[in-house]
Amino acid sequence: MNAQIRHVGLGAVVLMVVLAAQLTWLQVIDAEHLADDPRNTRTFLRDFTGPRGEILSADGKVVARSVPVDDEYERQRLYPLGELFAQTVGYQSIWVGSTGVEKAYNDVLSGRDLKSLKLKDLGELLLGKERSANVVLSLRSDAQQLAKDALGGQKGSVVVLEPATGAIVAMYSTPSFDPQPLASHKHREVQAYFNLLAAAPDNPALPRTYRERYPPGSTFKIVTTEAALDTGIATPEREFPSERSFTPPQASQSISNFGGRSCGGNLEEVFVNSCNTAFARLGFELGEQFPLRMQGFGVYAAPPIDLDPGAVASTGPLPGTFATNKPSFALAGIGQGEVATTPLQMAMVAGAVATGGTVMRPHVGAEVTDDEGRTLRTIPARAWKTAMPAATAATIRDYMVQVVERGTGTAAQIDGVAVAGKTGTAQTCEGCKPHAWFVAFAPAEAPRYAVAVIVENGGVSGDTATGGRVAAPIATRMLRLLLGV
Amino acid sequence: MSHPRSRLGRRRRGEELGLGALALLIVGTGYVLLALSEAPEIPANFWGFLGAIFSLFVVAHLAVRRLAPRADATLLPIAALLLGIGFVMISRLDLAEKSSDRVAPAQATWTAVGVGAFVVTLLLVRNVRSLARYRYTFLLLGVAALMLPLAPGIGREINGARLWVHLGPLTVQPGEAAKVLLVVFFAAYLVDKRELLASGSRRIGRMYLPDPKHLGPLLLPWAASIMIMVQQKDLGSSLLFFAVFVAMLYVATGRAGYVAVGVGLFGAAALFAYNAFSHVQSRFDIWLNPWQDVEFRGYQLTQSLFAFGSGGFAGTGLGLGRPDVIPVATTDFIFAAIGEELGLLGTMAVLIGFLLLVGSAFRVAIQAMRPFPKLFAAGLATILGVQTFVIVGGVTRVIPLTGVTLPFVSYGGSSLVANFVILALLLRISDESAAEAEAEAEQVAARQAVESVQA
Fold first, then answer.
1. How many CB atoms neighbour CB B324 within 10 A?
2. At what angle are helices B235-253 and B371-395 packed, to 10 degrees?
């Protein structure tokens, strides 16, 4: 029987070898894939029960922190500033998923991103000290608060960024929401509040600043001007006829000036007075060249912001459609029709002029710090697009300064500081109240901040609202605070 | 019955003690590491723990020294190592549990009971061949043990399988005892009938097939395993019984035809079960595609696979993973918990441990001088090997998952006691063959001495 016993024993060895092969597959070859699978409960539990860093505003206020609690998840996430940062910082929720900075910087906050974390000494390694890192935002809590106060409950958005770095200093939209109930560990509570938010008519959970598109109206004339100058369609000397309306080919309706007046002159004059007829002409003349210039500012692409979900792409008339869709290109010249932009994108347009032509990658994170506040990593300033040559930017900057000095944006004047701006009063639909827009940067000669403000449907001013009257004062308050004047 | 102190016996017991000390060192280190993952100090109960496992090993060792001095030296230390690793892992899983749900104290108690059963087995079974005499008693007891969970009143269904019996405060799994009892019967029966089973075969074409009238003994265990599969919904035990029987039939007769027929029969039964029973179908479908329903039906298996992946090559370290997210981690999925915290290094070490354990058991079978102990030892070795493959293959998705314990490693009193009995029986067989070999050698030497004197 010994031969048979050896056969059976050999069979046992073969089975063990099969097991060893499968273990090698699971634990070496396929290991990373299995370990990182989002359905792996370990990943999920580590994020909720492990230590989690704080999220701090640029001025040192705690925006999110975790405290120990006595339940199965061990730690509760708290948002002491509530709705002020909800649409950017987001929330960490067991039941409805995480959003915003909480999601985009999850690896840092949970300490999983060990590459950015250096162990202080061997003792920490031996004690298995669990580490996590903090995220310091570029957003300032006082700027957020002012944006909220200045909007004063009117639906709208405020975005302020540093054009040179892309760092966002303020990004707030009304209405907002309190993220705290979503971070609850109780499923029923979370779901009830989540349903309430989803059903609310004004959609408070929507970050309008970077995930909602609006017709930008006349603020988009900055883009039209750049396109006209850099394609040679227009020079600063070009004279536009003084006219009440312009009807592009194929169009059934004419495009008229604000208030039905007649308007014309050289490029600076039509910019400062925001003549629709002149810019509709330019949009039509640019034709297929127009979308290419818009792309330089980032239109058609989702800005690569450090948020999750990220920013939505702004839109314009589709390339290759000019032949059959000429009116749309004319309307694009005045920021109407198929053009729809996020407030963030318009702040980036102002920023492109401010930097002399470069569009920086927008970001809300400034740096990653350890539990003692030491900087582990700084979020770098990186260029995203090149919109125009410096000479064009200088020309447009001068026009924008004139807008504030003597044009539609006089409400944005600040004593001792040259402000460059552009108003917009965007038609939304027939008989609807227009959106009031203002984009600006200051100081004009050495820009530190670029700002975009929109008040939806004119806010409390309604029909009589214009960008200059409703939105410009809000932008001015933001710039005054930030410039300290 | 008293054996003279043989040189072989002294050497083997010395080796056993040395290997055992090594195993205890590994286990003790594991226990300290586990405690250090919680707090930076040696746990207060450490010396108590070390003392307890040390004394249990010493009791078992002294029992072997006294009752089976020439027995194989590797089986007991390897079993101690596997049991110790399992105990450390069970203690680790307890950390994540409420104190009322902790099982390590029970496992410690069961280990003591197991060692008791080990000593009692060595005491009672002084001669393995005596077991063969009671073959039909063992058959009856084995079948009764198999049927017991079906009895109304005391039978219990846990986790969808009806293989438990309630006895006062204890829940026991009589199937574990049935395993050993039936192997005694199979061995005795097959030794009797093996000539018959081996010779009476028909030739069909180039294939030799057993005579149909000898298929009877094959069909009986087949029917029994189908019954276990259907009535108790226990696929693992069913596969185990049948595989062990087919292996023993092959060892006894040397006819590969039996293996082919056996595999065919089991395949047919499995196919039938797949079509007829939803729980069998469900197990099979989860095996084929666990990713289809990760949240519910595939949860156990996918979390087990995630555990292996999360552990990777070196593991997270004891106490630093989350093996507690796998349901029933202390029993069916203990190997996945080892995979997560000790990594491929740990799983390979455990696997090699089993390879040595099963290999030593087969060596005992080969060294046995007489047919019954030989076949009996081969059967016991096969139980250990197949059971290891069924559960490790199940949690690593080599084969469909079926709930059997990982011998010595998993939490479970019945299984632990049964495995200690298996261990004692193997040591008894080993000691017996060594004694016989020694006696034979002495006779040869004596004869040679006489011859040389005569010459």
1. 18
2. 140
Judged on CB neighbours under 10 Å (0-12, 13-18, 19+), B271 is: exposed
Query: Facing residues of B8 across strands?
Result: none
The domain spanning residue A247 has which CATH number? Answer: 3.40.710.10
Query: How many angstroms separate the CA atoms of A301 and B432, rounded?
Result: 83
Domain assignment present for A145: no
Which of B32, B294, B310, B386 to mutate: most A Cβ within 10 Å?
B310
Output the CA–CA distances (angstroms, integers) from residue B2 to B369, B425, B446, in the order listed.
20, 18, 21
| B332 alpha-carbon distance from chain centroid | 14
A/B interface, count of CB pairs below 8 Å: 137
Residue A158 in any domain: the answer is no
User: Angle CA(A175)–CA(A181)–CA(A184) in degrees, nearest 5?
Assistant: 155
A127 contacts in chain B (CB < 8 Å): 40
Which residues make Cβ contacts (< 8 Å) with residue A130, sequence separation at least 6?
Answer: A50, A51, A111
Residue of B294, B308, B393 with shortest CB distance to A27: B308
Contact A23 B339 (CB under 8 A): yes
CA distance B4 to B439: 11
Residue A30, domain member (yes or no): no
Q: Which residues pair with A454 in a beta bridge?
A: A157, A437
> Virtual CA dihedral for B435, B438, B443, B447, nearest 10 degrees?
180
> ipTM beyond 0.85?
yes
Measured in angstroms, the CA of A52 and the nearest CA of chain B are apart by 17
Distance from CA of A112 to the nearest CA of B (A): 13
The separation between CA A242 and the C-alpha centre of its own chain, rounded to angstroms, equals: 38
The number of domains in chain A is 1
The candidate with the shortest Cα–Cα distance to A356, out of A381, A387, A382, A384, is: A387
* Contact list, B322 vs chain A (CB under 8 Å): 41-42, 45-46
Residue B42 predicted with pLDDT over 90: no
Residue A166 included in any domain: no
What is the DSSP secondary-structure string of A326-393? HHHHHHHTTT-TT-BB-HHHHHHHHHHHHTTSEEEPPBSEEEEE-TTS-EEEEPPP-EEEE-S-HHHH
What angle in degrees, to the nearest 10, is found between the helix axes of A221-231 and A343-354? Answer: 40
Mutate to test the interface with A, among B41, B296, B322 (most CBs of A within 10 A): B322
* Closest-CA distance of chain A to residue B247, Å: 7
Residue positions counted in chain A? 485
B200, pLDDT greater than 80 = no
pLDDT at A305: 97
Distance from CA of B91 to the nearest CA of A (A): 19
Those residues with Cβ within 8 angstroms of residue A437's Cβ, 6 or more apart along the chain or in another chain: A214, A216, A217, A218, A219, A346, A423, A424, A425, A426, A452, A453, A454, A467, A471
Q: How far apart are the first and last CA of chain B?
A: 35
> How many beta carbons lie within 10 A of that of residue B167, not counting itself?
11
pLDDT of residue A444: 96
- Sequence-distant (6+) residues with CB within 8 A of B360 are B72, B74, B75, B78, B426
Question: How many DSSP H helices and E strands does chain A contain?
Answer: 18, 17
Supply the pLDDT for residue B104.
Answer: 87
* A2, A5, A33: best to mutate for the B interface, most B CBs within 10 A: A5
**pLDDT tens column, A283-308:** 999 999 999 999 999 999 999 999 99
Q: Which domain holds residue A471?
A: 213-365+381-483
CB atoms near residue A464 (< 10 Å): 10
Residue B294: both structure tokens together: 């990760």
Range from A346-350, B104-108, B139-143, B228-232 that averages highest in pLDDT:
A346-350
Q: Which residue of A has its CA nearest to B397?
A: A22
Query: What does each C-alpha distance from A125 to A35, A50, B56 come to in angstroms?
Result: 22, 17, 36
Cβ neighbours of A41 in B, within 8 Å: 303, 306, 322, 325
